[in-house]
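User: Reviewer 2 asked us to show a designed sequence for the structure in our supplementary figure. I'm pasting the structure tokens here. Could you produce the per-position amino acids so we can include them in the response letter?
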């Protein structure tokens, strides 16, 4: 629905240029280090991982990025985290095709957002995008001390919506987290393969594969027709 990676990269680079350029490391290099730490954190988040203390995630990631360049400065890490969050909320934007597609689906289907995030990193972003009114539930797996692809995350979403697996469809761009998890929970899945990735060897394919969220209403209609 949104180009989260590019937005994060640009926000990190701007925060670094404003606050850390005098420390002898280039803003772009520090931003790359931050993104590396952030990706590692989210990629390795596993079910059962304890919820970090409130406000601790971003400063911890920025401190790790600073230390990669020989700078051990928790106070600077905190300032970078605060500035990054402000810029991030200001700059986050949906792909142009997202809202038209969601409006076509809204009211016809029960819908939920399912993300591996925590409230402190995702609630403000969801509010800024104005998405909440289009969805019947927002599932933050981190708040449950779970992470996709654990099937319990998807089962919780279905329970919140009051639907069964046989009538549910997961839509996601991460094959390993979204599609694999949905299948493990007994759901069908639509893979938004906007990065033209290859199907992992030996993996069960999604029931539908699309390259853009603009194709989503037609893909769901096709699944409806196939089920009926």
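Assistant: Here is a per-position design you can include in the supplement:
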């Amino acid at each position: 629905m949104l180009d989260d990676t590019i937005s994060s990269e640009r926000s990190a680079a701007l925060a670094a240029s404003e606050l850390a350029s005098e420390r002898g490391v280039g803003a772009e290099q520090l931003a790359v280090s931050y993104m590396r730490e952030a990706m590692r954190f989210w990629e390795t988040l596993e079910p059962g991982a304890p919820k970090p203390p409130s406000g601790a995630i971003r400063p911890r990631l920025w401190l790790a990025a600073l230390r990669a360049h020989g700078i051990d400065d928790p106070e600077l890490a905190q300032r970078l985290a605060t500035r990054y969050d402000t810029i991030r909320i200001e700059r986050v934007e949906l792909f142009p095709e997202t809202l038209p597609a969601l409006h076509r689906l809204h009211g016809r289907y029960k819908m939920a957002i399912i993300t591996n995030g925590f409230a402190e990193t995702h609630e403000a972003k969801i509010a800024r995008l104005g998405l909440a009114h289009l969805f019947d539930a927002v599932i933050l797996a981190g708040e449950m001390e779970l992470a996709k692809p654990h099937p319990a995350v998807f089962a919780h979403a279905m329970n919140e919506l009051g639907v069964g697996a046989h009538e549910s469809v997961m839509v996601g761009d991460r094959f390993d987290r979204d599609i694999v998890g949905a299948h493990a929970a007994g759901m069908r899945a639509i893979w938004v393969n906007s990065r033209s990735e290859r199907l992992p060897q030996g993996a069960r394919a999604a029931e539908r594969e699309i390259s853009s969220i603009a194709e989503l209403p037609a893909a769901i209609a096709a699944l409806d027709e196939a089920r009926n």
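For the response letter, you might also mention the following. The chain has a mean pLDDT of 88. The beta strands are 112-115, 137-140, 169-172, 188-192, 208-210.
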